[in-house]
Amino acid sequence: MNVVYTQNDVLWNKQPWVSGPSVQHALRCDVCVIGLGASGLTALSYLSQHGLNAVGIDAGMVGAGAAGANGGFILAGIAAFHHDAVAVLGHVRATRLYQRTLEEIQLLASQEPSFEKRGSLRIAKDDEEYLDCLRQYNTMRADGLSAERYEGTEGRGLLVPTDGVFQPLERVRRMATALRDSGVILYERSQVTHIAPNVVIANGHRIDCRHTIVAVDGKIEQLLPQLAGMLKTTRLQMLATAPDNTIHYPRPVYYNYGYDYWQQRQDGSIAIGGARDKYEATEWGAASYPTDDVQSAIESRLRTTVGSTAPIRHRWGASVAYRLDDVRPFVGQVLPSVWACGGYSGTGNLVGTLCARDIATAIVTGTHHPIASWHA
Asked: What pLDDT was estimated at residue 331?
């Protein structure tokens, strides 16, 4: 019988966090941003910088969802490998989106102290996947994107030099602290039960607003049923070890078409996730807590392919939304004055902030032009 753990023990949660207030009375604002992960905080920062009265709310605490519990990968591009994105979108549109994520990496590097530009590896599980790596390499080179064929101790595949790693929970807490210091109010532990044009109900209290931005990835289709069938929530699981000095992975690794992934932190510990391809049916719509069958599969990958014998110190899961009808995330209006972004398919660290900033820009400028590249 599969056992579900009763809590998450996230590697990144190193320091205590003093939570902010919860919604306890009616509010009025220009923009209500739902979700206090990196996407929502990015939108709040842009809106406040442009003089709008914006408030942020979250059912949990800052970074309590996937924004603070992911693998810490910073990878250029959307979730689909570039050649797969080109097959759907064409070279021009796919390359335009890829270039925008490269710009987002440069912005992140200038703002985030924990970012380490190490590059990333896509390592092939077998000969068939290696041929797919070569297809990706050829398409990226044809479109002027940085990629190198790679063969080393990790295996063979591709090296993408633009990519890197960071500490995701530190990032969102740093963003939230800066917003608090600037006077933006962040309401935590505030459950949203209703969203309509110009109205949000949280903790039973009414929030009147000119615009609403739903910047929640996991379970977004529960907040906005209009997106059901387009976006669907699944669970991603990870574990982390004690420091292991017997192995050396200087770059984060994507393996088995990205279904398995790991990185070695500076202290030698290994953070590894995956195995969703083996248990896809049971992960859709599941709670965020880890389970013994998926954790056992991840541990098997750790002991065999990665080669680490270090004891396991952390196990956790997180909810994310996958886009079902497109390779791109959803960005746009769902109802009059209600905007949403989500469906990053497990790669929201870069794309999420980019999408949220585009929505905030559209609100500030009064034009849909900033989000056009996600649809055109």
From this structure: 97
